[in-house]
Amino acid sequence: MVFQVSKKETVPIEGQKPGTSGLRKKVVVFKEPNYLHNFVQSTFDALPADQVKGATIVVSGDGRYFSEDAIQIIVKMAAANGVRSIWIGENGLLSTPAVSAIIRERIAADGSKASGAFILTASHNPGGPLEDFGIKYNMGNGGPAPESITDKIYANTKTITEYLIAEDLPDVNISVSGVTSFDGPDGKFDIDVFDSADEYVKLMKKIFDFASIRNLLSSPKFTFCYDSLHGVAGAYASRIFVEELGAKESSLINCIPKEDFGGGHPDPNLTYAKELVARMGLGKSPSQDEPPEFGAAADGDADRNMILGKRFFVTPSDSVAIIAANAVQAIPYFSSGLKGVARSMPTSAALDVVAKNLNLKFFEVPTGWKFFGNLMDAGMCSVCGEESFGTGSDHIREKDGIWAVLAWLSIIAYKNKDNDGGKLVTVEDIVLQHWATYGRHYYTRYDYENVDSDAAKNLMAHLVKLQSSLPEVNKMIKETRPEVADVVEADEFEYKDPVDGSISKHQGIRFLFEDGSRLVLRLSGTGSQGATIRVYIEQYENDPLKTGRDSQEALAPLVEVALKLSNMQGFTGRSEPTVIT
Ligand code: G16
């Protein structure tokens, strides 16, 4: 059978602007007639022709509700647009980092490589018929499409008049590995379904010393727990932690991927990873059992991570700093040194102190993983991270949740390597030692979710106006909490990419204090409804006698100042944030 290509008329649909990481909307919106079709065609039309015609493209995601329907539609549209091969992880499952690895590493039997990928995920947002779906495009380097492409996609969605589809192509059986070939007007079209984990596991084995991690996991002193929150990390957890590294099957919780994430919110933080938090002894009512020594969780698409020790939370900002400080000694992939390190602007300056002490190149970029990609492609950055529970390296061009766990396990193994009979060097010991060397950045983030969009815009506009009068800002601070230092600089963060010179403006409102503290406010680019206001609060302490305080208590004066300056309650009507991390 030769499939036919149909041209279907359509009209532009409003609101298809990709956010921080792709287009995320409610499933009901994605199910509206032509909603997905318009976005997919707009993407094909935004890509260079040779990355579509005759190319190989990956399509998969975190398996959330509507994924299979979306895969079938994208396959038919890809065939009609002249794509040569489509690669799909079994059951449509590929974690975001695995997609990046596949684009970079996988070579088909005929020697071809993929030129890009549609990743179907709304990341840490809940899934199900009434929840969120998402789609984003990654390029040939394995990283999210740059703004030059996402801007084109958006422009196309505003002028689209038709899309192409091969309606008579049968649905693909995505549950069985193998290649199926079809004949189309442009020649052959292949659909290649393959194991979701093989390529990723191979890559992890090249980066880490699995033998030393296996040794750690077999030690009676060390106990371990991993929570996939029913996201796609479950498709990798058993293979890596149990089969390859010898962890007990019972150390994995919520590791069966589910299309609605078991009804939960697949966001690995202290609020949503409730079961793990309780197991680790950090819950409101501490668990009866002795908590494990190490715990970690992933989000829906497995690019985020949360790292916990026994009754101990590691902030993501500290996590990337600690990984950077120990990478060369503990992780074989970095043994010849780090090319540089980078963090997003709202992430705490813990990484800056490490970079300074170790004399490493350092970059501060806007929120959004795509900004790290250019630095990595140019060989300027090896390790990077964000406060939003994202950590990664130049092995791929996405953040990588399981990589972060393996990095921590490698560091713990390294710190315990000569420790035959002694007490385990724990996660907490490693963090305390880090603070003793580099000082501590107290850090917290307040999120106000689903706020009225106009109220959020007005709040931001009010802050920008306030920034023009520092004496007024400092007067308000003194009236609120006299012990808080003066603001010495206030601006909106703007980034000039050192590789391609592109400029990104309005990347967050900053208040920089005389003692190094910072307040940052920005609107999230990943929500699907209303606006989410994020308030980031940070204070540096390098007096060893003062690094052991409770972080919410230490930051209370700055939090009060942030809420006062922003007039949060006045603009939004909210007296409490939705989530504190
Ligand atoms: C995405 C981006 C991250 C960003 C995060 C939060 O992650 O890749 O770089 O930090 O969104 O962004 P925002 O503060 O705008 O909500 P993910 O895991 O959601 O794909």
Automatic annotation (TrEMBL):
Its EC number is 5.4.2.2. GO terms for molecular function: magnesium ion binding; phosphoglucomutase activity. It holds the Pfam family PGM_PMM_I. GO terms for cellular component: cytosol. Keywords: Carbohydrate metabolism, Glucose metabolism, Isomerase, Magnesium, Metal-binding, Phosphoprotein. It catalyses: O-phospho-L-seryl-[protein] + alpha-D-glucose 1-phosphate = alpha-D-glucose 1,6-bisphosphate + L-seryl-[protein]; alpha-D-glucose 1,6-bisphosphate + L-seryl-[protein] = O-phospho-L-seryl-[protein] + alpha-D-glucose 6-phosphate; alpha-D-glucose 1-phosphate = alpha-D-glucose 6-phosphate. One of its GO terms (biological process) is carbohydrate metabolic process. InterPro entries: A-D-PHexomutase_a/b/a-I, A-D-PHexomutase_a/b/a-I/II/III, A-D-PHexomutase_a/b/a-II, A-D-PHexomutase_a/b/a-III, A-D-PHexomutase_C_sf, A-D-PHexomutase_CS, Alpha-D-phosphohexomutase_SF, PGM. It comes from the Eukaryota. Residues 16-163, 198-308, 317-418 form the Alpha-D-phosphohexomutase alpha/beta/alpha domain. Its cofactor is Mg(2+). Catalyzes the reversible isomerization of alpha-D-glucose 1-phosphate to alpha-D-glucose 6-phosphate. The mechanism proceeds via the intermediate compound alpha-D-glucose 1,6-bisphosphate. This enzyme participates in both the breakdown and synthesis of glucose. Monomer. Belongs to the phosphohexose mutase family. This is phosphoglucomutase (alpha-D-glucose-1,6-bisphosphate-dependent). It comes from Zostera marina.
